[in-house]
Each structure stands twice: as structure tokens, then as C-alpha cells.
């Protein structure tokens, strides 16, 4: 079945959240990798825990709280100016090198492309505009409208409602194995950009397709015809 | 308000899940710490993701799937015998050194003690019996009855239903900061055994009490009168 639209995860898939590391390294020389790694882990963990506990807060707040925890856990002091500088990185994330070429290659197919992300509408508009990628997408769909983060079903349902098609007519592209598993469990088709060469998450579902970089996506779509 | 009962988390609170490390080290010399650490991280992550996605599988299955992922991610081969040996460790976990003395100290207060855990009924009965601790508890409450893992509200509700009291009349004791936050969000009183000296999780709630070891719990209860 041809796809009615393609959905992209943002953080870690189109944007390299590792690009935050450089800013963290400037603020805390020698601790940038540790800080950015723990910050990202906590950001995801808090998104899951808040959704499970029924205590939604938007991704900007969750991202800030994850930063506060990470800084405290690593015994770093954080003044307001540095905090503001680090948070601002989320509005000017660096896209992966393969992001723009893939979007251009895939754009010629005439399929509508959209983003489906945990980020707030403001965070998404800011980052995609800053990166010069906004024009590729018919919609930046934020889970904020459902007030639950991925992998809750209502988060994926937003895309189904937006396009008014069956879940199986949508392809979700993500580098996050847990996102791919959640989307597949929900009923979307999925393409996993397995940048790290990681094993498939053991969550009882398999991705529809797997590549190593975003450049593998146009090829995979071609093969499907 | 005096408590009607005290609930204990099992893994990481009464039992040292780090005790799995020794078995992992025997199976994979030099890789025991990496394997047991990733195994535990994935076990928790899968419990949250499966609950969010509405795809519950019991904690024995989740623990096994987390092991399979961790072994694959670390490029280790795992035969059935080794897998069985590692999984069996969850039925004979080592209690922390402060567990039995605390249970004895607290037992004299006449308060009913119970366990509220992600573990299956079988896993809990096996581990508490093997450790010689089963007699301290009036109930080993498994979230399996609710088919959702902590920090879903229904998991904590099981304890409320069991004792037939207000949530605020129950004290949950846990070393897991995320568990303490989930229980507090639900409305239980909480005591965080902060063994690692970690910061409080930034999830919008605070523990009622904090200690560094389980030995701090009887003292804290005495101070409350």
C-alpha cells in the first residue's frame, strides 16, 4: 500500500540533539558530554513518567527540569544566564548532515511530509525555521495538543486525525527505537533510522523498514514502488 | 497523621539489583557491570514504554527481554543455559545489609508492612522466601493485578484497595526516585531512601521524608511520633 503521508520524529532523527554537547562543553569544560547525555536521558524519562502519572507538563518545561536534574547530579552550578543559553540550544539544533538532502530527494515524490514530535509548537517552529527546513512540511504536529508524550496512543492518533487516514497509511520515520516501537504498536508503518547500529528494541513489534542513515529512506521507498 | 501501613518497593530498595552483577561477571568476565547496568536501565524503560503503549507484559517477560536487548547491544552471545542462570538471579536477589535490621526494628511498631512491586507474584514470593524475609509482610502486592507498571496510578491504587484506607494514610518507601515521585503524585506519603545521594527528581513533587539508608526509616518514624 502506498503511504498517504510521511511523519518524521524531530529530536535525534532530523535534529542532532548531540549538538547541544558543544554548548554544554563551552559552559562546563570537560563535562559537556556527561551533561548533554544525562540531560537527554532524563528528558525522555521525565516525558514517560509524567505521562504515566497523568502529570503532563510541556516539553519545554520537561527539558528544563531534566537540565536542572542533570546539572545537580553532576554537581555543577548553573546560573540563569547559562541555563538560558543551554535551553536556547533547543531552538537552534543542528540538523544531521543527511536531513536536508533526504527531504529534497523525498519532496519530489509529492507525498505530504509532516513532523510528529514531543516538542512544543513553539520549539518546533523555532528549530525548523532556524534550520531553514520549515518549508518541507505541511504540518509540525506537536503532542502538546494531546497533553501526553510518545509512546501514548493519543500522541500518534494526532497524526491520524490530521490526515484523516488509516494508521497503516502513514509512515513514521524515527531514529529512536522506542518511538518506532510505540508507533508500530499503535498501527503506523515505521522506518527506523538506526544510526548507532543498535539492536531492535525488545517490545514485541518490529519496524517495517530499517536503514542506517536518512539517505536510506528514499531508496527504501523506491524499492517499495 | 499516623500511617495505617507501610509499603516497600522491592527491587533497588529491599533487594540490591546490583547483586546480579556478580552473576553477569561470571558469565561475561570484564563485562558484568556494563551488562547488569544496561539490563536494569532497559528493564525500567520497557516497563514504562509497555504501560504507555498499552502493551503490558509481566515483569518476568520484560526482565528477560531487557536482558536480550542488553546482551545484543553489548555484542555478547547468550546461550539458553546462561540466560536461565542470569534470570534465576531475580529469584534469589541479595537484600541490602540494612534490610533485615530495619524490618525487625520496624516490626515492633505493630504496623502492617507490605510490598508493592513491579515483580510478578511468583518473582516476589520466590525472592522474599529465598531471602528469609517473607514473614515480615502481610502482603506482597504485585502490579500484575492491574496490568500496568509503576508509576501508573492503578499500580498504586492496588495498595489503597488492599488496605481500604485513604492514600495519604499509606507510606511508600523506595530507593527509586521515580517511584517516590509517582507515589507522591498519586497521593501516598513517601520516604525516599537516597542511597546514591542523588538530587530529587524534577517531577513537580517532593518526598515526605528522605534518608540515606533504610536504618534512617525507624528514626524518621520515631521523630514523627
- CATH topology description of the largest domain in chain A: Rossmann fold
Let me know the average pLDDT of chain A. 96
**Structural class of the helices, strands and pairings of chain A?**
alpha/beta
Shape of chain A: globular
How far is it from the N-terminal to the C-terminal residue of chain A, by CA? 9 Å
Instruction: Note the main sheet of chain A.
Output: 6 strands, parallel
Write down the CATH class of the largest domain in chain A.
Alpha Beta
Percent of residues in β-strands of chain A: 5-15%
- Neighbour order of strands in the largest sheet of chain A: 5-4-1-6-7-8
CATH architecture of the largest domain in chain A: 3-Layer(aba) Sandwich
- Tally of domains of chain A: 2
Helix count, DSSP H or I runs of 4 or more residues of chain A: 9
Largest interface: A-B, 33 and 33 residues
Strands of chain A, total number: 8
Radius of gyration of chain A: 17 Å
Q: State the CATH superfamily name of the largest domain in chain A.
A: HAD superfamily/HAD-like
Helix content of chain A: 40-55%
Low-confidence stretches of chain A: none
Element string of chain A (H = helix, E = strand) = EEHHHHEHEHEHEHEEH
The multimeric state of the shown protein is: homodimer
Amino acid at each position: 500500500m502506498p503511504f498517504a503521508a510521511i511523519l518524521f520524529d524531530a529530536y535525534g532523527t532530523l535534529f542532532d540533539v548531540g549538538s547541544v554537547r558543544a554548548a554544554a562543553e563551552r559552559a562546563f569544560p570537560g563535562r559537556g558530554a556527561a551533561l548533554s547525555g544525562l540531560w537527554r536521558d532524563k528528558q525522555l524519562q521525565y516525558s514517560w513518567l509524567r505521562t504515566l502519572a497523568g502529570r503532563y507538563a510541556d516539553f519545554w518545561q520537561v527539558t528544563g527540569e531534566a537540565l536542572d536534574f542533570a546539572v545537580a547530579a553532576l554537581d555543577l552550578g548553573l546560573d540563569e544566564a547559562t541555563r538560558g543559553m543551554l535551553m536556547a540550544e533547543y531552538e537552534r539544533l543542528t540538523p544531521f548532515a543527511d536531513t536536508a538532502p533526504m527531504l529534497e530527494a523525498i519532496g519530489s515524490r509529492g507525498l505530504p511530509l509532516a513532523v510528529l514530535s514531543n516538542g512544543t509548537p513553539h520549539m518546533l517552529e523555532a528549530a525548523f525555521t532556524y534550520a531553514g527546513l520549515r518549508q518541507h512540511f505541511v504540518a509540525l504536529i506537536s503532542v502538546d495538543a494531546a497533553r501526553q508524550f510518545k509512546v501514548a496512543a493519543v500522541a500518534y492518533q494526532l497524526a491520524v486525525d490530521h490526515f484523516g487516514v488509516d494508521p497503516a497509511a502513514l509512515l513514521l520515520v524515527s531514529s529512536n527505537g522506542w518511538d518506532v516501537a510505540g508507533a508500530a504498536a499503535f498501527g503506523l508503518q515505521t522506518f527506523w533510522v538506526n544510526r548507532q547500529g543498535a539492536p531492535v528494541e525488545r517490545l514485541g513489534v518490529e519496524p517495517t523498514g530499517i536503514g542506517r542513515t536518512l539517505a536510506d529512506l528514499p531508496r527504501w521507498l523506491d524499492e517499495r514502488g
